[in-house]
Every structure is written in structure tokens, then in C-alpha cells.
Design a protein that fits this description.
407 residues; alpha+beta; 8-stranded mixed β-sheet; 10 helices; 17 strands; 40% helix
Length: 407
Amino acid sequence: MQLRYVYRVYPDPGQQGALAQAFGCARVVFNDAVRAREDARKAGAAFPTAAELSTRLITQAKQTTARSWLGEVSAVVLQQSLRDAETAYRNFFASLKGTRKGPRIGAPRFKSRKDARQSIRFTANARWKITDSGRLNLPKIGAVKVKWSRTLPTTPTSVTVIKDAAGRFFASFVIDTDPQADAGRMPATGQTIGIDLGLTHFAVLSDGMKIDSPRFLRRAEKKLKKAQRELSRKQKGSKNREKARLRVARAHARVTDARHEFHHQLSTKLISENQGIAVEDLSVVGLARTRLAKSVHDAGWSSFVNMLQYKAERYGRTLVRIGRFTPTSQTCSTCGVKDGPKPLKVREWTCAACGAVHDRDINAAKNVKTAAGLAVSACGAPVRPGAIPAQREETGSHGFPAEARAA
């Protein structure tokens, strides 16, 4: 499978200027491709092919006065930007036809130079390399300093350079993992677990363990409020406003980084200790429309479950999602009798049928495990008909789901 390893990079002022130029050229080519497609649609003509767009928007454009500066950046960056536009249109049409999973997505839109996130991608034919001194040598940019938080397990197939809203630069390497090596890192275990995700406790396990919710956003609200208030008082277009915007972005980045680190540590611990894991398929989008929206976003359930998915596939574990309408909080985990709905303020209840006293969350976690049908065979592997590991694909320069993320 393919994974991303992300590291912090520190370009010098000259390299930052070269990266800004590359970001801008990639953005212009992407916007030109979208404009060409839109013009063809309005004229009722056939969409231009990728080869035609490459010739017109890159090769011929470099020879004109208006676009001659496209020749000052690597041609691979421009070609990858065209591929991103093609992928965006392909996903849009697949969404219209209903062949693409997930919510409906709209048509590709023009990128802005004021977008919070900028990125460019270099494939193997760009001849980028990691020098003997540990720097990342990029064509027409130079050798950029990298903070190696861990060693790359294999030779990367591509690298994406990203600038986030806080002004930080990252290098995201795509690698192909070795299934046999991954299986050896985490040997099989006979344990299975059910997880009930919540807000009071981030996760309650079927073995009775409760993991407190760190509430990173709630803890940082005071500082965020102050930084946002200072930003609102700055004159638009001024340098002081840009400095205030960076302070707000960095404050949010610290919250995001802390949440991702917590999710990575917890998901790795659960995957290493359990052969089978069961979770509820929560409607995060629906819960985010309620009065609990801020707390739901602060918890980051979707990010956590996605980490469980790809780590389960990588290390040969089984992850099972049960339906969101399964009455896990209404059913007695001892005798299986459904006791009816209960308000959230009820944290403990006694089963009328068997007299068992239940902690609401622990009982729900046990029911999640039971509903998943996880059973352990004699060799220690989970057995459940129809359980298929989640797939994880390369997402170009649009995603940031890193297996390793430098602080």
C-alpha cells in the first residue's frame, strides 16, 4: 500500500521565493485548464484532451510574452498541475454519475493566490533527490533543509512540497510499504476490542478502559479568541493584519498538530494490541449541525477512525464498522434485552430483565463488539465473514493523511 511520510522543511529566503514562483505557475496552469474546459462547455464543444491542454497551456504558452515566465519553473510541476485538474474533473463526473463514493462534489473552481494552502508535486522524472547531507534537492529550487523526524523506510516515488496557512513548509513523500515487513512489526494477537466514541470520554473500550478527551480546541479557546480579536481590528491589506493573520493560523495549527498526535498515538496503540477492532459508523456531518458542533469537531472522530482503517490494512488487522442505528445504548450487554432509549443524562442503568447494572458507555462498547461479530480462531486471527480492509490510495497533492508527521 502507499503511505505519506511528511517532514518539516526550512527553505532559505531565496528558496522561498523560488517556491512561491512555482506555486504561482502551478496555480496559473490549473486555472487555465479549468477556463479552457469551461469555455468548451459554454460553446458546446468537446472538452480538450490532456495532451491538447499540455501543448496549448505549457509548451506554446512558454513561447508567448504573457506566459514566458512558465519556463522558469520545473516542467514537471506544471504537468502535475494539469493532472490535478484532470483528476478533479474525473471525480466531479464520477460524483454526478453516482459511481464515486461519498458526498456529492462540485465542479473544479479557480484557485486563488490567497488560498491558505499552496502545493506543488515532483514525480521521479523530475530528478529530485535526497543529498548525502540530508537535504532535499529540488529542480530550479535548490537543496532545502529537512528536519528528519524518522528514517524513510523505502525510496519515495514522489514528493509534494506544501505551504500551509501558518507559513510552514512541509515535504510529503509517497512510499510503497512492504507487507511482509509490516506484518513482522506487529505480530498477531488474540485480543479484540469494541470502541464507543464520545465527548465526555473520547473513547470507552469494551474492556472497561476510559480514555479522556483532551479537548485541544476548548483549552486553546481563550488564546484563539484574543488572537482573532486582534486580527479583526487590523486594517485590511496592511502588514500588521498579515502578521495578526499568521498568529491566528499558527494558534490553530498548534491545536491541529496536537489533535493529530493524540489520534496517531492512540490508534497505533489499539492496532498493536488488538487483532480485531469494532467502531460505530457515526454521522459526524449530522452531529456537526447540532449544538454539540464545536465539541464534535474538537474530538475529530473521522480522522481517528480513518487512521484505524489504514493502519488495520497495513498491519493485517480487521476493522469493522457497525451501523449507526444499532441500539448499543439501549441493549443489555449481559442478556441482550432491549431496554429502550435513555436521555444523555442517564450514565448508569439497571436491566429490568436480568438485574445487571451497566455503565452506559462501557455497555455500549460491549454491544459494539458483539454487533461486529468479532470471533477469534485457534490461530489468533479474527474471523468474520465479509470483513474487507479499507482501501487507501494515493491522493496527489490534495490530502494530508500522513503516517508520519514532523512536529
